[in-house]
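#onboarding

Welcome to the new folks! Below is a worked example of what a typical request in this channel looks like: someone posts a single protein sequence, and someone else replies with the predicted structure as tokens. Don't worry about understanding the tokens yet, we'll cover that in week two.

Example request:
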Amino acid sequence: MNAPELQKLTDWLIDGARSAGPLLMAQTCERLVQAGLPLWRVGVFVRTLHPDIFGRNFIWRPGAEVVVGSVDFDIQNSPEFVNSPLAIVFGEGREVRIRVDDPESKRFPFFDDMRAEGVTDYIALPLLFIDGTINASSWTTKQPGGFSDDQLAALRAIVRPLARVIEIISLRRTASILLDTYVGNRAGERILGGQIRRGHAETMHAAIWLSDLRGFTALSDRLSPGTVVEILNLYFDCQVAAIRKHGGEILKFMGDGLLAVFPIAEDDSNIAEVCARVLEAARESRAGVEALHYPSGEAVERFRFGVALHVGPILFGNIGGGNRLDFTCIGPAVNLAARLEKIAGRLHRIVVASERFAGICDGGWTDLGEFPIAGFSKAERVYGLADEVSMPSP
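Example response:
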């Protein structure tokens, strides 16, 4: 064991491993090998605060790139996890040391693969975060006879500063994920970048999407709250995937309403291309909602929605009172989109567009007429897709 190299590694971790960037795992393991630890397979397993992902794993082997993966919440009940040493680490917060030739290893199917690779020894060590959260690391070797006492002591010592660095990285990643989940990527980047003062705003040119589920009030009245939430999630799934696929950003869910924007370059150089993507997202969402059905007793619930499309400048920033702020967008263009969506409902149309949007995006439009717009001095000509016909709501 090379004590000076181990001390350099410890100091590097305590200093934040700032030179590592995304290569923390690789550089840590390589430095441990240089210090005399005969490592073979090293894993780090970290829980994350994410609506779909339970945790992430990072697997290092000498001479190979670190393999990064993720697992969903079902992993907690899977035989693979339940019958693994990591289940003990996560559940009890204690280390698990097993020599692969020990009969005790037979109770863990994981070691069948390790034996095939020539692994001789294994130790799983908890990575304890300041708030008490337990994460895990695993360390293996092919060294004949397994890890020595000095090597085990070095591993137990190094996981403490390593846990601190991983915790910092994890917290920053969690903050980014939560902001992206709840306010959208563009707003999340600005908030994390320090744009958190009330009144801090900027103007952005964008295509605006505002949609609404038809008959939501009646639906809420006749179904249980839990069923309504499940239906809303299915309904929003039909739109969110299409919006994000085509470059849009979800800004807000408002009951059964959805507000999204598709940013346009300041010089409008990509305005036609952006509007074409918006229309494609609208067509995909329409198909998804039309295909959506939900069994309700002996009946089957079917759904219709409306979406209004417009283009214009919006004010994007922090609005609110006291210490409760919302990072959102406002402006006449947003108001007009909201009014157009109500007109779509009155006309029993699914996709409608302002004259400006329809003029930019040649999508096969039908002139639905000119309508007075509440709060606006001028009437607005409204367009609907030619492949739609006005139909009564279900």
